[in-house]
Amino acid sequence: xxxxxxxxxxxxxxxxxxxxxxxxxxxxxxxxxxxxxxxxxxxxxxxxxxxxxxxxxxxxxxxxxxxxxxxxxxxxxxxxxxxxxxxxxxxxxxxxxxxxxxxxxxxxxxxxxxxxxxxxxxxxxxxxxxxxxxxxxxxxxxxxxxxxxxxxxxxxxxxxxxxxxxxxxxxxxxxxxxxxxxxxxx
Length: 186
Hints:
By secondary structure, this protein is mainly beta. The protein has helices spanning 10-23, 28-37, and strands at residues 43-54, 57-69, 77-80, 84-90, 93-99, 101-105, 110-120, 126-135, 140-143, 147-150, 156-159, 161-165, 171-174, 177-179. The chain is built from two helices and 14 strands; from the N terminus they run ααββββββββββββββ.
């Protein structure tokens, strides 16, 4: 009886390998879409302490217990389900924003702060609201929820909604009441 050796030539192995490789029709984008089916973030961060500097000077410090990054979605966003604490530094002055929940939409640059929102400006003004929107690109803040702003001199304003630029030099309030301190000129 004669024995036959079935050794495939190297070219046949390469051919079958290439066939297998090119038969996979998936692309990187399609593989990323698989992550969407289970609605999970592409990345998760714990005890986040992100610092942004400009020319070696600290400008912003973002602190959050949890960061969920959904930048793999068509309408990308980052979610902070356990809140956020942001410090802004401008020369020797510091402003802060805190909330129990936050979400930032990457495509639009809109930040939605919710639950126990407290914004403290460098000059001592304190804004409290249950929800506050921050348009980062337009440098504009607004809410359609009740709020209270307490000024550094003790005066305050309660209202149902407002629009303002980031430094509050433009402040449009609706349905408001409050106490203002007026200093008479000497």
